[in-house]
Structures are given as C-alpha cells and as structure tokens.
Amino acid sequence: MDTTERPPAPTRALGLPRSSAGLVLSCHPGPVAAVTVLVTALAVSSGPGAGRWVLVATAVLTGQLSVGWCNDAFDARRDAEAARPGKPVARGAVGPGTVWSAAFAALSLCAVLSLACGAWAGAAHLAGVVAAWAYNLKLKETVLSWLPYAVGFGSLPCLVALSLPGNPWPAWWAVAAGALLGGAAHLGDVLPDIEADLRAGIRGLPQRLGPARTRLLLPLPLTAATAVLVLGPAGAPAGRDFAVLSGVALCTVVATTVHIGPRPVRAWRKAALAGTVAVASADVALLLARGTDIV
Length: 295
Fold this sequence. Notes:
Layout (H helix, E strand, L loop, with lengths): L8 H6 L3 H8 L3 H18 L3 H25 L1 H6 L14 H21 L2 H19 L8 H17 L9 H19 L3 H6 L5 H13 L1 H13 L7 H19 L8 H24 L6
Helix pairs in contact: 3-4, 3-8, 3-14, 4-6, 4-7, 6-7, 7-8, 8-9, 9-11, 9-12, 9-14, 12-13, 12-14, 13-14
C-alpha cells in the first residue's frame, strides 16, 4: 500500500509546487480576476491609451492580490479552527509568513503602479485598497463592515476617470453605483456563511442582521445601483434601460425570496448570491456601455 503523502488535488491540477500553488489559491483568484477584468474593460471603454490601460490593470491586480493574501494570512487560525475548505494557509499548504510577505510586496507594487496613473488616481485607488485591508484586519467584525466594500468599489471608477488626460473627476453616478454594488457584494458574499461567522465571533452588519433580514436587504442596493446607472447619466434613458431596470428588480425579488421545501435551506442562500452575480453582471454591462460618459 502506497503511504506516500500526496499534495491536494488543486495543487496537482495547477502543476505547481505545493507551496506555490497554495500561494496562488490563497489570493482568492476568482474575485481577483473578476475585479481586474472589469476595471480593465472600463478603462478601455472610457478612452484611448494602451499604456494607461496596462497601468490601471496592474494597479488593480496588485491591489486585489494584496487584499486576498492579507485576508487568508490574517484569518489562518480562525479558518483552521472552523475547518473551512479551500483555505490553503489554514490547511498548511503554504505558510502564513510567506503569504504575509506576498501581501506586503503586492501592496508596495500597488502603491507604485497606482501613483503612476496620476497622483489623484493613485490616491483614490489606494484609499480603496487601504479600506479593504481595514476590513480584513478589523472592520469585518463591526457594524461598519459594509463601509470598506462601498469605498473600495466606489474608488474604482475614480481610478479609471482620474487616469485620463487632464485628470477629470468621475461622474457622481459612476461612483455611487460602484459604492452600491460594493455594499451588495458584501451582503451577498457573507450571506451563505453567517452562522459559521457567528460561531467564530465575527459580528459584522450582516451577521448582526441575521440571514433572513440580510436576504431581505440585499435587493435594495442592487436595484438602487441599477436605477442610478439608468437614470444618472445625462439624456433621456432608452427603453432598453427601463427594461433592464425592470428585469433587475424582478430578478432580485425572486432570487432573495425563493424557498425550497417546507423550510429555508442553504440552497436559497446560494440563490441570493447567484442573484447578486446576475444583477451585478447587468450593472457592469450598463457601466461599460457608458464608459465614455463616466467623466
């Protein structure tokens, strides 16, 4: 019988050494890629300048990497005690010291790259990154847990607009929509894990509200973000914009009120997160369609 210790399946699939794969997986690669692609697409749609696009993309990428690594390194002991799956630091696939070093290295690169986009653009983006670090280190345990998400997502249109020639300020509706989507992302992200978070002593806003009230609150920032994107830009909204708004309202209501079986089960909490993703996708499409109007 072969008793040789084998690395976890994700490590073998990546074809990387165990510690390297653990480092990659501990950065939260899905959200990192999603946010980086979104902001890069917004930068491309907002105006010309391949060099600017690269700077914006790498600034966002390094910022998101630093936030993901900070999160897993700081929560390593808590994640290990809760036996949470998918946490490479908690299961010993990579050491917390290695992840902390990567987090601070990425943060340093983010500062340089952000400021290379312009002083105001860099300051706006770094404010969002610092807010995300504050969430990881303390604010997620407080009633202000929503604030870093609002600041972080709201700072992204600022980075894109202020990196343009002349450093124009972003349109108010772009920043407001980003902040609202950030608040919704926080609610939708935390919702499936509220009970586990409460057992671990995490009492952010969604945990204090509880699953039922968080589920009922979730449609408000989502629908508000869509309304801002439809009604905020100058000019009369097109018929398709109102169709999107109506569809978003219907989607959020269905996704956050569905129950399966005689009592609520985990599936309806996942449905709320799926609804968040669907509505956020519609809002992203609206935002990208208005890329040249964000200033």
